[in-house]
Amino acid sequence: MRLLLDENVLKPLRQTLISLILDHEVVHLLDLPGWSGTRDESLYPRAAAKGFEAILTNDGKQMERPREVAAIKASGLHRIEYPHKHAGLAGMAVAIATVVAGLPAALTALEEADGQRLITLRGIDPTPASRLRVINPKTDPPKHWFSSP
Question: Which residue ranges does the record assign to the VapC45 PIN like domain (predicted)?
Fold first, then answer.
């Protein structure tokens, strides 16, 4: 499958994806001469004409804009969205983790699809309470934790 990463997708994500998703062509829009700044209404038909089959974006408002929805529908392209609401290093880590964890299953679903699909990858919660389990062995020793003499 030919997958186009939208301009709003972190550029370092492409290298991660091409290392992990070997049976698919992954192209970042910014690597295509003359494509930077293409409006979404023009991007979808242009990408379809160039043989792309899916677009990965983090533009969560795209499906709220009627002209963009019409362009997506008319293009026949699969649309894969991932949430990205965090800034800085944490934001980049969440974006990469979300896409790496969900994209392989999404691509499998698209290969088996009998028509256009719209997929939203579920985000990973970066808050410490959801990502970490911290144990204080002094107050809550794990099984077989031996005290020092």
Answer: 1-78
Instruction: Tell how far CA 85 is from the center of its chain.
Output: 12
The verdict on domain 2-124 having CATH code 3.40.50 is yes
How far, in Å, CA of 135 to CA of 141, rounded? 8
Chain length of the chain: 149
Residue 71 to residue 49: CA distance in whole angstroms = 13
Single-letter amino acid, residue 26: V
pTM for this model (two decimals): 0.84
Q: 146 — phi, psi (to 5°)?
A: -100, 135
Minimal CA–CA distance to 55: which of 16, 27, 19, 84? 27
Closest CA to 2 of 17, 24, 21, 19: 24
Share of the chain above pLDDT 90, in %: 58
